[in-house]
């Protein structure tokens, strides 16, 4: 294999810059279309979009009625993806998500099994109130989210591309919920916390959504274009300084790595997938902001949504009223310095 000549490298860089500019224009239109329907919630929209642009899944956590479902259906429209929605309930079975084998009989009386695909065979799956289903059903999503195929009756069935799960979850204090297993939480690129809207946004919601006409978002991309942008994000360069900051942050969040506060307060910390997630999301955030390479600021901004669902506090730390966010915040201050 020959050495890349400087002229080739320049052509390559020019192509990446041109692709990035085109992607940036697309992202600006996506933002405008989503903003027609979802008012305020800037960071929620940004983080959810970053998860999809990075090729991953997102968990949206908040009390009912904060337009989480509306955001997901709007994104499906704007990104030009086919979508389906599963309302998770305590009696939902794995086959209700994955699909099942049914027996057919032909005119000669010969019987055979046929696979009937479940709602998971879509490009954007909305898993509504995911923590209302039993752990057995929640785990039916696991293989699909990680391996992009499902196995039913010993047969492998590949999922469409791209495939994203945007799940919503009620805060665990609410009745009738099962906490998600740690292994499944780790499959989510980010946990996006959805809070109550600001006053101005809530005023706009009142005025815009109670009349005869409601604004509708228009498609901006299609699946092929989204895959192109995801591919571009994976090509963006990441400086040694940013890679070191990611490693330093993720490793300092694990007990037994020389950080006294973490050893005292953290029961278990983020695995290597947290670093991979930070790396991808930082590139996506840079592109979202019109930059060609991520900076330490991107790591600082993404630390909480990427790490908070991948670590747990000790009983003693929880008893003292400490939160995972407090721990992440103090670790982030160390990489800033």
TrEMBL record:
Signal peptide segment: none
Keyword check for Hydrolase: yes
Gene Ontology MF terms: hydrolase activity
Coiled-coil region list: none
EC number: 3.6.3.-
Keywords from the named record: Hydrolase
Ranges of residues in domain AAA+ ATPase: 54-198
The protein, known as: MoxR-like ATPase
Organism: Pararhizobium capsulatum DSM 1112
């Amino acid at each position: 294999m020959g050495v890349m000549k400087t002229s080739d490298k320049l052509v390559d860089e020019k192509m990446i810059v041109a692709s990035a500019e085109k992607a940036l224009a697309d992202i600006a239109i996506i933002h405008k279309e989503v903003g027609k329907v979802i008012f305020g919630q800037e960071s929620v929209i940004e983080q959810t979009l970053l998860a999809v642009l990075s090729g991953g899944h997102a968990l949206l956590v908040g009390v009912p009625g904060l337009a989480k479902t509306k955001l997901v259906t709007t994104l499906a429209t704007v990104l030009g993806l086919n979508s389906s929605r599963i309302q998770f309930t305590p009696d939902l079975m794995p086959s209700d998500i994955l699909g099942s084998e049914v027996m057919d009989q032909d005119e000669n009386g010969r019987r055979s099994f046929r696979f009937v695909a479940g709602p998971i065979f879509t490009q954007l799956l909305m898993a509504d109130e995911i923590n209302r289903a039993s752990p057995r059903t929640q785990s039916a999503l696991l293989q699909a989210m990680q391996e992009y195929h499902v196995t039913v009756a010993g047969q492998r069935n590949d999922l469409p591309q791209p495939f994203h799960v945007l799940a919503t979850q009620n805060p665990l204090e609410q009745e009738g919920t099962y906490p998600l297993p740690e292994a499944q939480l780790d499959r989510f690129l980010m946990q996006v916390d959805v809070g109550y809207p600001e006053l101005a946004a809530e005023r706009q919601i009142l005025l815009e959504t109670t009349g005869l006409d409601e604004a509708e978002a228009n498609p901006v991309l299609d699946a092929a274009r989204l895959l192109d942008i995801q591919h571009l994000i994976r090509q963006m360069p990441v400086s040694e300084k940013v890679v070191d900051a990611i490693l330093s942050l993720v490793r300092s969040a694990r007990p037994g790595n020389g950080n006294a506060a973490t050893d005292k307060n953290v029961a278990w910390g983020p695995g290597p997938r947290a670093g991979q997630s930070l790396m991808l999301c930082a590139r996506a955030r840079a592109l979202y902001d019109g930059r060609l390479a991520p900076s330490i600021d991107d790591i600082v901004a993404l630390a909480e949504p990427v790490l908070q669902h991948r670590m747990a506090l000790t009983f003693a730390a929880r008893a003292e009223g400490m939160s995972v966010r407090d721990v992440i915040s103090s670790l982030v201050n160390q990489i800033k310095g």
